[in-house]
Structures are given as C-alpha cells and as structure tokens.
Amino acid sequence: MRRLIVPTLVTGLAAVIAVPGTAAHATSTTDTTSTAHTTGIAGAASVVGVADVVDDVGDLGEAARAGQWQLGTLRLPEAWRVSKGEGVVVAVLDTGVNAHHPDLRGAVIEGPDLTGTGDRPWGPHGTAMASLIAGRGHGDGSGIMGVAPAATVLSVRVTLENGDPRRGRQLSGWRDALAKGIRYAADHGADVISMSLGGGSGAWEGYAAEEEAVQHAISKGAVLVASSGNDGATANRKNFPAAYPGVIAVGAVDRRMKVARFSNKQDYVSVVAPGTQIVTADAGTSYVVGDGTSSAAAMVAGIAALIRAAHPDMSPYHVRRAIELGTGRRPSGGYSPAYGHGVVDALLALRTADRLAVPVTAMAGPGPYFGDGPVPATRMPVVGGMLMLMAVMSARVVLRRRGRRRDVT
C-alpha cells in the first residue's frame, strides 16, 4: 500500500501586525510536534523589539523593514552590490504565495495547486517564505526586503497550513504532492527550489518518490534547499526533504548567532541562518513575526539565488560549496550537527563562488552529502547512486543549462 505523504510546515508564525485599515489577527501554523519554540510569542507586544519599533516609527511598512535584523547579519547591503538575484527563478514549494501583497507585486508566478483542494491558492506560510526570498518592499525604506529582491518566485502549492483541519483527511490530490512539485519546478525553469516543510503522516524515514524527484531536479541543474526541522529540543527527528542527499539542510540561529533550541541537530545539516524573531509578509497585506527553521531555509534559498544570478552556469554542487565555505562562526573542526558548516554570510558566499567558478573540466567531484558531515550507514546505497549521478551532472549541467530555454509559465 502506498503511504500518503502530507508535508508539515516547520515554522511558527506567532504574531501578526495589521496594516492600518485591516483587522489584526493572531495565527499559528506551528507543527504540534514542535511547539516549544513558540512559547512567549503569542502576540506582537511579546516579541522583542517589534512593539517598540511600531510605536517609534508609526508606519507599519517601515516597522517591518526596521525589524529585519537579518539584513545586516547576512551582509546583504554589501552583497546586493554584486547580485540581487536578477533572472533567477526560485520555486517555493509551500502553501501558495499571495502575489498581491504589496512587497511581492511583480515578483510571483503562480504555478499549480497540487493539494486537490481547489480553494484559495495561497496561505500565510508560503507568502511569508516568498517574502524572505524575493520581497521587494514598497515605497522608500518600507516593507520586507528578501535576500534576492530581483529574483522571481514560482509558487507551487504542495501542502496546507498546519492548522487546516483538512490536513487529517486523505485527499487524493495530496498523494505525492511534494514529489510532483519538485519535478514540476525543475521542469519549468526553477534555478532554486525552496522547501520550508517536512515530515508529516509519520514520514520521518523519507519517501522513494520524493528522493527520486530530488535526484531529477539536481540532474536538471536546480539547487534544493530545505529546513532541518523544529523539534530539536524534543524528539530531534530526521526531517525530510532536508535529509535527502543533495538537499541543502538549514538550521536556525538567534540574534546572538547561537543555534536555536528548536533547531534540529542532525548529521545532514549543511548551514544555519537567522530563524528567530523574523518579520515576514502575511497572506493578506500585513506582517507576521515568528521563529522557525523555515525562515532560515528561505534565506539560504535566497543566497543560492544571488549566486546563480552571478554565476548562471554554476552546478548545484558548487553553489552549495560556495554557501558552506562562505560561512562565518564556523564550528570547531569545521563541522557540527548543530551548526553544520557555520552561519551563512551572503557576501562571503558570493566571494567564494567567484573562486569556485572554474571551467567544467576542472570541477571536482562532489561528496556524498555535498559536504563533510558523516553519512549514516543506512543511506550508503542511495549515496552511491548520488555519487554516480553527480559525477555525470557536474560535467553536463552547464551545457544543458546554456541550451535550455527557460519555461516558467
């Protein structure tokens, strides 16, 4: 019997600030298995610094921008002098993206809804993640700026919000939704595929259809990024799609650059990024503040877009290595299951990508997980297949991408 895979969102959106003239509402899309990280963030006033910013600035859009502490941490103003993600398509596999949010206008292409629900094609979580990747703000110094503000988001709806009661039903449209979404994105011109979701329906051991889709996307030249998971303080389960070979798994750090308690610590973690007190767009025209590895993964997907814009022909393996080698606060020994290879830095990643931009014939072969972390013995058969796949891909992906006409309709 085939198992139904229902991806679970891995972030907590805990405090919403309403745009003047609209109703404020509190929401939570927190996985019920990963609730520890939402404690004490029930409303806007309880989120450190946000209420004060709103009072001091007076304008909601300006307050949202002022609350984006990650812009400086990732050194984005300096990185934007090199690349803003121009011409890059980032597929956001999530709950759908509201293209009408003022900070995302002109940035979103609506792809298919693979959930089979037939209702409104966007949700708070997907919109939040898209804003962190390609938010363009609005006006002068107002609204959310994504990591790659010139990139285009391809929205592919593969799951529902965690609080949606329909998640418990076995809708036929959900079968293989994530696997289908990965393949759709890869076949429709996605340079980067961002997946801030995982687990669900007991699928903590992975799923063959998804793993095959991941390999297909890599062979097409796509860079895949996923959140490591939010139950690091409890069960600390292996989270998929983050744990599939070839996927950049991202954990979360706080403002002090300490790994968040909720962030999963696993040997497949590649890097960590800001993931606490993160301001994002909401499904309407408002903003939300919350914690989670979802936000961290979206930011790393944005950094991958910056690299791809600067080096369109760079292989997925080398994009990943640029991100891993271009980190700050690297752990002792160069790698740990908590920090991965360190805290991401957009400027350093771009500079590292410049050094790695070598002719195809000089490219080195990838490691099993595209990194130095240990490989579980149970994954060795898959790793062997990935090694063969990546050896071929590294030699062919540049030529294929040069000759492939982008299709994102």
Structure commentary:
There is one protein chain. This protein has 409 residues and is α/β, with parallel strands linked by helices. It is 29% helix and 18% strand. The chain is built from 11 helices and 16 strands. It has helices at residues 50-57, 60-66, 70-73, 76-79, 124-134, 177-187, 208-219, 293-310, 316-325, 346-356, 380-403; strands spanning 8-9, 11-17, 89-94, 108-113, 136-138, 142-145, 152-157, 192-195, 197-198, 223-227, 247-253, 269-274, 278-281, 287-292, 327-328, 343-344. A 7-stranded parallel β-sheet has the order 4-7-3-8-10-11-12, with helices on both faces. Strands 2-14-13 form a 3-stranded antiparallel β-sheet, sandwiched between helices. Strands 1-9 form a two-stranded antiparallel ribbon.
The SSE string, one letter per element, is: EEHHHHEEHEEEHEEHEEEEEHHEEHH
Shape: globular
Poorly predicted tracts of residues: 1-8, 11-58, 360-383, 389-409
Alpha-beta classification = alpha/beta
Strand content: 15-25%
> Kindly, what is the distance between the CA atoms of the first and last residues, rounded to a whole number of angstroms?
35 Å
What's the assembly state of these chains? single chain
Mean pLDDT: 79
Number of strands: 16
Count the helices. How many?
11
> Main β-sheet, in a few words?
7 strands, parallel
C-alpha Rg, in Å? 19 Å
- Bin the helical content: 25-40%
Strand order of the largest sheet: 4-7-3-8-10-11-12
Write a concise synopsis of the structure shown.
The protein has 409 residues and is of the alpha/beta class. 29% of the residues lie in helices and 18% in strands. Strand 13 and strand 14 form a beta hairpin.
